[in-house]
Write a structure and sequence with these properties.
single chain; alpha/beta; TIM Barrel; eight-stranded parallel barrel; four-stranded antiparallel β-sheet; 36% helix; globular; binds D-mannose
């Protein structure tokens, strides 16, 4: 495992210089945010982003995400050209030596919450989801009522998309995902890039749209859909942990038994289920939520996980304001907590300073 941190590029209020100061964080997770969905990413643009990250003394280790165009998810006739563009972006990642691509296959909406700043007892705020609040959202007015990060759609465009999905049930969506992977996995293999699908968040259908990456069986189906080392998953404890039946450590172990080394990225955070299809995010440590991160990391250790991990959403603490879920402070606490767990799980002897230099900051 090596620790990484998400950075939203120049628009991120958190500078790379701050990320560099989080102990143990070596890698940056980022993306090009202004390329239209469906267009190929240019080597020049991605290379510039990589250069910026490296100039700050960090490494660009994960692209999260290259969004998948809705026409691909819908299986529309124009998808071949869009998939070719996707393969081109993956090829460019490979040329630049960026090893992991986190993407998702959720129709229309990415992750969804109904409260961006739920006050917690300690005065911090966290993201939360309540199906009853979602039911009250009126989509006939477009995405205006949804949390700010959702892709903005006007009423007509959203209405047309939702109508198009009426003929795409879960099995159709699986077919379309298979069609996509049959073409992108070979490109990823050639480029030496690992694909890591992100589970659906929350892990159940919303607004009547199918969602198919929700449970252990779905992860297992995904990796066998195109059985190649390049075809793997992002193990996101917070997304998967919102479904009470998901036993996360067991899922890690079972997935490894079905196909070895297919967890290419780990998103670690905690979540507390507070009712039927209702949850809130919590501080990372296991005691705060339903996810036993100690056990998840133990399972990751046992299956030989060597990939990037990042702390996922954090609360807003210490008066910080910014992008919901993506402040600096609580995520930095998460990063050090996760590294502490990992050190406890993996180190058996005192550090030998004659052979082990201080991590990535030799000037210490
Ligand atoms: C939310 C993120 C997701 C993730 C995408 C990957 O915080 O984990 O938005 O980046 O689903 O495509």
């Amino acid at each position: 495992m090596y620790m990484t941190f998400r950075w939203f590029g120049r628009d991120d209020p958190i500078p790379l210089t701050h990320i560099r100061q989080i102990p143990g964080v070596a890698g940056v997770v980022s993306a090009l945010y202004d390329v239209p969905v469906g267009a190929a990413w240019s080597r020049e643009r991605l290379g510039r982003l990589k250069g910026e990250i490296e100039a700050a003394g960090l490494t660009f280790t994960v692209v999260e995400s290259i969004p998948v165009h809705e026409d691909i998810k819908l299986g529309r006739p124009g998808r071949d050209r869009l998939i070719a563009n996707y393969c081109e972006s993956v090829r460019v990642m490979g040329e630049l030596g960026i090893p992991v691509l986190c993407y998702n296959f959720m129709p229309v909406f990415d992750w969804m919450r109904t409260d961006l700043a739920l006050p917690l007892a300690d005065g911090s705020t966290a993201l939360a989801y309540d199906e009853r609040a979602l039911a009250a959202v009126d989509l006939s007015r477009g995405t205006g009522d949804l949390p700010g990060w959702a892709t903005a759609y006007g009423a007509d465009e959203l209405g047309a998309l939702l109508a198009a999905y009426r003929t795409v049930d879960a099995e159709r969506l699986w077919d379309n995902l298979g069609y996509f992977l049959e073409r992108v996995v070979p490109a990823a293999t050639d480029a030496d890039v690992h694909l890591a699908i992100h589970p659906d968040d929350p892990p159940w259908p919303i607004f009547g749209l199918p969602r198919i990456i929700c449970r252990g069986a779905d992860l297992e189906r995904l990796v066998t859909l195109v059985d190649s080392p390049a075809n793997g998953v992002t193990f996101c404890t917070g997304s998967l942990g919102a479904l009470p039946e998901n036993d996360l450590p067991a899922m890690v172990r079972r997935l490894a038994a079905v196909a070895k080394d297919r967890i290419h990225f780990a998103h670690c955070r905690n979540v507390r289920i507070t009712g039927e299809r209702r949850f809130q995010e919590t501080p990372h440590p296991s005691a705060y939520g339903g996810v036993d991160l100690g056990e998840v990391l133990r399972a990751l250790r046992d299956v030989g996980f060597t990939g990037p991990m990042r702390p996922d959403h954090g609360r807003m603490i210490w008066g910080e304001t910014g992008r919901p879920g993506y402040g600096l402070y609580d995520r930095a606490l998460g990063a050090t907590y996760l590294q502490g767990l990992w050190e406890g799980l993996t180190r058996e002897a005192p550090i030998d300073r004659t052979t082990t230099p201080f991590p990535q900051n030799p000037e210490y």
